[in-house]
Amino acid sequence: MIKVLHVSDIHLGSGLSHGRTNPETGLNTRLEDFIKSLRTCIDHALSEPVDLVLFGGDAFPDATPPPYIQQAFASEFRRLGEANIPTVLLVGNHDQHSQGRGGASLSIYRTLAVPGFIVGDQITTHRITTRSGEVQVITLPWLTNSALLTRPETDGLSSGEVNNLLLQKLQPILEAEIRRLDPNTPTILLAHLMADRAKLGAERFLAVGKGFTIPVSFLIRPEFDYVALGHVHCHQNLNPNGTPPVVYPGSIERVDFSEEKEDKGYVLIDLEKGNTQWEFCSLPVRPFLTINVDVSDKEDPQGAIESAIAQKQIPEAVVRLKYKLRSEQIDQINNRALQKALSFAHSYSINPELVSQLARPRVPELGEQVTLDPITALKTYINNRDDLQEISEEMLDAANKILNEESDQEIESLKSKEQLNLL
Ligand SMILES: [Mn+2]
């Protein structure tokens, strides 16, 4: 049995707007949160100890992170190298540079030839010797159109057609890798992709441009003992009733509010041919909290907002206060008092929203107390619209026609009912 730790979507350096500068370290507190999560994963890998670590891609928000963020990532992963735990770093869409192929932010590990580190920026099979035996890992990095297709091939095609063409190209390549596998060695497919049955997290907002989607059926193969995915931030197993498990561990921290209610963590796997077990390990990440309150019908809007805040105090949470009010209530809001009420939070944002005034009747003649037949109502409306004067007769004609047709139909249906009664 081979013990594997599967972690993905680290996104170190994302969501910094939800943090503040820590005066003791000079670092953004959200960067520190992300580092803490990553450190917990690596601690677990070392204490277990696992035989192999798989990273499913998306190390940083983009391919060119600032050096201090690169360093934070490297100093955690270096501990695996020191403990002689082989590690595969797969290239995700956020790791790719728009110029050229490969993962700009992760290529440095190959360039430096860090012992035990493999950078997965191509579709290929790695045979890795671990303390507990051999394992085969097929790496499938994020595919862009240019990886498998040429310009003339895609010219004039819709995105759906490009998607199909890409799948047609990918299929034989993956097939060739599968055919070369040793059937007696445990095998993992490590892929950064969007699977067609995946529930979406924040990555749909993070991704630059639309990528392509791979059917889950494509990934469910008897040759695989575990399919280790990256890209979707919401933890899930796409093959809950069968083998192999097809698992997104999700991101290790909340990148934004779309992940407010998601558990965050990583996956620990007992890999064995025909008997693979896995478990999700939760990370104690910082809570996110949305306080949503509509005070547009409240006499004391300030009091209503403050009591909504008082009911939901989670210390050190990242808080988003959203409240709805009418424009004439603005003077009743004391923003400083709201800030004070939110001081339990790690950070907060306050988003007031004015409720639409459009619901008010715009034609004063059509007040609630007036009962009008449809044609008179339409005439009153047209009289208030100078731009409709020229076509007012046609509109009234058309309205009359519609109303008459309706009454004709009513008569018809009454007739047929009568006939039915006669029968
Ligand atoms: Mn991704």
UniProtKB/TrEMBL annotation:
List the Gene Ontology MF annotations in alphabetical order.
3'-5' exonuclease activity; endonuclease activity
GO terms of biological process kind: DNA recombination; DNA replication
Domain (Calcineurin-like phosphoesterase): give its ranges.
2-234
UniProt keywords (A-Z) are: DNA recombination, DNA replication, Endonuclease, Exonuclease, Hydrolase, Nuclease
Q: Please tell me whether the keyword Hydrolase is annotated for this protein.
A: yes
- Which InterPro entries does its entry note? Calcineurin-like_PHP, DNA_Repair-Maintenance_Comp, Metallo-depent_PP-like, Mre11_N, SbcD
What domain of life does the UniProt record list for this protein's source?
Answer: Bacteria
Its biological purpose: SbcCD cleaves DNA hairpin structures. These structures can inhibit DNA replication and are intermediates in certain DNA recombination reactions. The complex acts as a 3'->5' double strand exonuclease that can open hairpins. It also has a 5' single-strand endonuclease activity.
Q: What is this protein called?
A: Nuclease SbcCD subunit D
What species is given as this protein's source?
Euhalothece natronophila Z-M001
